[in-house]
Amino acid sequence: MAECIVCKGDYTPGSPCPRCDADNEPWERWRQGQRGISGWLDFLSPGLYLPIILTALAFPVGVAGVQALWLIKQVAWPWSVPVLAVLSFACVLIVVATYEGRNRLRERELLNRVRRGPARFFGAELRALAVPTVVVTAMSAWMAVILSLPVNAGPNNLEYLLSTAQSQGLFSTATWDAVIDILTLGSPLSIAALGYVSLTSAAVYSSSLRLALSYADRMNQRVPLPIFVNTARLVKLVRLEAERHSSSLGPGLTWEGMERTDDGGIKLTARYQHDRKVVEDLAGKKSDFPMHTKCRVVADPWGRIRSITPESELQV
């Protein structure tokens, strides 16, 4: 048995899904083409393999920067190699985790179309933009703090840098030395190392998310969409599921109302006959009325019944 891409029900490959009647053949072809190295290439190629390139360059570029700083200012960072190794490993984990979760990301992005509440706005597109923005803003704030610190009980770093550039020239050796002094003030980790690690990991994360979004768009064009995107189809499935579960509640369900839940599921209102009641009026005339119970049917985004709850009895 395989899992239906539309409703997550079990189906036999080559046959329509018995639960939602979806044709999973496009999904089977897509899944077959995404196996092995071809799946990785299809995932990475739209972005010109940027996350892989950034990951591959993280260690050698960092080592080159450390070596250049040693040659220029004799600043030694003995812990730089293990930190850069951890950074490279973290970047690999980001790329692999995004690739492995690409189908779940597609479902969440589609689910955001029908969910209610503010959570639906925090999708992958926003995260891909927000993470680098937050990192750059935080690093800018940290750099402003460093620039405001005094240098050897003298003027602050910004004044020191501006005065050096004004007296010695913007591209002079003295100005370059002043920049290096500021960047390595107190601890090399202050700006250079922290900025490199955070910006590199943020760039890998953001570029990987954008590749996952591109993958989701291509998949949406070739593979049937989940059932929660089509409200009418979801309602039909939930009604069938509820009627299968309603034998103990009563026959003859009558559907009256529908609304989407906060998580993208659905809530239906129905009533069913469960008894009859004889009512005698003041003139002594007896009338036989059917008694109905109203119930609430709640299902998840895939049309799976969560609860069927009787709410009240009414007379018709």
Structural account:
The protein has a four-stranded antiparallel beta sheet. A two-stranded antiparallel ribbon has the order 1-2. The radius of gyration is 31 Å and the shape is elongated. The protein has ten helices and six strands, in the order E-E-H-H-H-H-H-H-H-H-H-H-E-E-E-E. With 316 residues, the protein is of the alpha+beta class. 54% of the residues lie in helices and 16% in strands.
Q: Nutshell version of this structure?
A:
The strands form two sheets. A four-stranded antiparallel sheet has the order 3-4-5-6. A two-stranded antiparallel sheet has the order 1-2. It is of the alpha+beta class and 316 residues long.
List the helices and strands and how they pair.
Blueprint: E1 2-3, E2 10-11, H1 25-33, H2 36-44, H3 50-73, H4 80-100, H5 102-111, H6 124-148, H7 157-168, H8 173-183, H9 189-222, H10 231-245, E3 254-260, E4 266-280, E5 286-299, E6 305-315
Antiparallel strand pairs: 1-2, 3-4, 4-5, 5-6
What radius of gyration results from the CA coordinates? Answer: 31 Å
Distance between the termini: 46 Å
Q: Report the oligomer.
A: single chain
Name the beta content range: 15-25%
How helix-rich are the residues, as a percent range? 40-55%
Order of SSEs: EEHHHHHHHHHHEEEE
Uncertain segments of ≥5 residues (pLDDT<50)?
none
Compute the average pLDDT.
Answer: 81
Please provide the count of β strands. 6
